[in-house]
């Protein structure tokens, strides 16, 4: 919960802080994004820079959506669930997809790009496309823990518990410690 970060601030003050963070994300993005964009001006054919930028953009969009939800939760504390329009993040997620497509154009065998594309498609709730990306990632590397885990999440979101459990079991086999991939909001078994 965001209150843990802000401590004893009032809800009104927390909303003001969130609004400033959202404004910064909407105008300049993260420091990583700015650095990567500058680097890409000099090295437009560097697949690893495009990959890092795609990840940074995806993370910024997820952070933005989180802030929007927390803002509404603070404004409406009596509601168990808040309804937030995160559609403005769609263009940001699409930009991340464009970065990953550029990676594939520059280096078709770039490791991890299918899993990252799947993550963005999942964030967009384009579950069929996410599924295909994770399957491709596992075809390229049958030990890609993140792809197995996120494929389980995708099948769970699609309502296919049997396939979800199969891929969560594979993820657990690949990573017996059971820690979900960094940034995962899916609760797999």
Q: Could you walk me through the main structural features you see in this protein, from its secondary elements to its overall organization?
A:
This protein is mostly helical and 189 residues long. It folds into 2 domains: 3-110; 127-189, Serine Threonine Protein Phosphatase 5, Tetratricopeptide repeat (Alpha Horseshoe). The protein has helices at residues 3-6, 11-27, 31-42, 47-75, 90-106, 113-123, 127-140, 145-157, 161-174. The longest helix is centred in the first third of the chain and has 29 residues, at 47-75. It is globular.
- Beta fraction: under 5%
Q: What structural class do the secondary elements suggest? A: mainly alpha
Name the overall outline. Answer: globular
* Helical content band: 55-70%
How are helices and strands ordered from N to C?
Answer: HHHHHHHHH
Number of helices: 9
Overall radius of gyration? 18 Å
| Low-pLDDT segments, ≥5 res | none
Distance linking N and C termini: 23 Å
Task: Describe the main β-sheet briefly.
Answer: none
Mean pLDDT rating: 88
* Count of discrete structural domains: 2
Beta strands, count: 0
């Amino acid at each position: 919960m965001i209150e843990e970060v802000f401590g004893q601030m009032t809800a009104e003050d927390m909303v003001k802080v969130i609004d400033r963070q959202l404004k910064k994300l909407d105008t300049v993005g993260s420091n990583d994004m700015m650095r990567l964009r500058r680097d890409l001006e000099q090295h437009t054919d560097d697949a690893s820079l495009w990959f890092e930028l795609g990840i940074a953009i995806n993370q910024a969009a997820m952070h933005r959506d989180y802030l929007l939800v927390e803002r509404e939760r603070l404004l409406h504390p009596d509601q168990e669930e808040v309804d937030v329009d995160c559609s403005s993040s769609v263009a940001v997620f699409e930009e991340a997809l464009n970065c990953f497509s550029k990676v594939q154009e520059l280096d078709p065998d770039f490791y991890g790009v299918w899993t990252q594309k799947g993550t963005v498609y999942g964030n967009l709730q384009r579950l069929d496309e996410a599924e295909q990306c994770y399957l491709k990632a596992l075809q390229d590397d049958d030990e890609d823990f993140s792809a197995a885990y996120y494929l389980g999440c995708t099948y769970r979101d699609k309502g296919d518990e049997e396939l979800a459990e199969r891929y969560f079991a594979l993820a657990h086999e690949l990573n017996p410690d059971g820690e979900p991939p960094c940034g995962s909001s899916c609760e797999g078994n």
